[in-house]
């Protein structure tokens, strides 16, 4: 009879251990589901934040003075139709000749250009700030015309 009691006790301990094991798996599964929900919520918040950032992003324009001319970098999160033409027209209005340029106009707009003051009678007295303001105005004009 003692053997039966010991066997029953062993079976109860085994059942208790298996119940604890099952409980751990169930708790872990619930925790994983909670984490998945948090990730989904964060992804939705990031998506909303990125959309508003793209809509409200400001252009980044840097102009460095070179020995003869300027190095102009322009970056916008969102490309606008006619933006490249408008920026190049601003260079022309200032009397800057584009000596070298790299442009990407797919989703974003990125321009790196070297502008030299080779158009006679225009580029006298132009500094980097004037070039930057002209480029920013060209961008603003295009953005305003799209709205």
Average pLDDT figure = 80
Using the alpha-carbon principal axes, give the shape: rod-shaped
N-to-C series of helices and strands: HEEHEEH
Structural class: alpha+beta
Task: Please bin the fraction of helical residues.
Answer: 55-70%
Unreliably modeled segments: none
**Fraction of residues in β-strands:** 15-25%
Sequence of strands across the biggest β-sheet: 1-2-4-3
Spatial extent as radius of gyration: 33 Å
Number of strands: 4
- Terminus-to-terminus distance: 91 Å
Number of contiguous helices: 3
What does this protein look like?
With 147 residues, the chain is α+β, with helices and mostly antiparallel strands. Helices cover 59% and strands 21% of the residues. It has helices at residues 2-56, 83-94, 128-146, and strands at 60-66, 69-76, 97-104, 109-116. Strands 1-2-4-3 form a four-stranded antiparallel sheet, with helices on one face. Helix 2 runs antiparallel to helix 3 (128-146). The longest helix has 55 residues, at 2-56. The protein is rod-shaped, with a radius of gyration of 33 Å. The N and C termini lie far apart (91 Å). The model has no long low-confidence stretch (mean pLDDT 80).
Summarize the entry for a quick read:
By secondary structure, the chain is an alpha+beta fold.
Question: Topology, please?
Answer:
Elements: H1 2-56, E1 60-66, E2 69-76, H2 83-94, E3 97-104, E4 109-116, H3 128-146
Antiparallel strand pairs: 1-2, 2-4, 3-4
Helix pairs in contact: 2-3
Quick tags:
single chain; 147 residues; alpha+beta; four-stranded antiparallel sheet; 3 helices; 21% strand
């Amino acid at each position: 009879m003692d053997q039966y009691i010991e066997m029953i006790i062993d079976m109860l301990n085994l059942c208790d251990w298996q119940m604890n094991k099952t409980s751990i798996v169930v708790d872990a599964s619930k925790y994983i589901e909670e984490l998945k929900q948090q990730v989904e919520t964060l992804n939705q918040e990031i998506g909303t934040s990125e959309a508003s950032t793209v809509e409200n992003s400001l252009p980044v324009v840097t102009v460095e003075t070179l020995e003869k001319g300027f190095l102009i970098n322009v970056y916008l999160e969102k490309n606008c139709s006619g933006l490249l033409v408008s920026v190049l027209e601003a260079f022309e209005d200032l009397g800057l000749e584009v000596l070298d340029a790299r442009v990407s106009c797919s989703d974003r707009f990125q321009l790196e250009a070297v502008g030299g003051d080779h158009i006679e009678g225009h580029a006298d007295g132009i500094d980097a700030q004037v070039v930057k303001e002209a480029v920013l105005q060209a961008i603003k004009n295009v953005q305003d015309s799209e709205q």
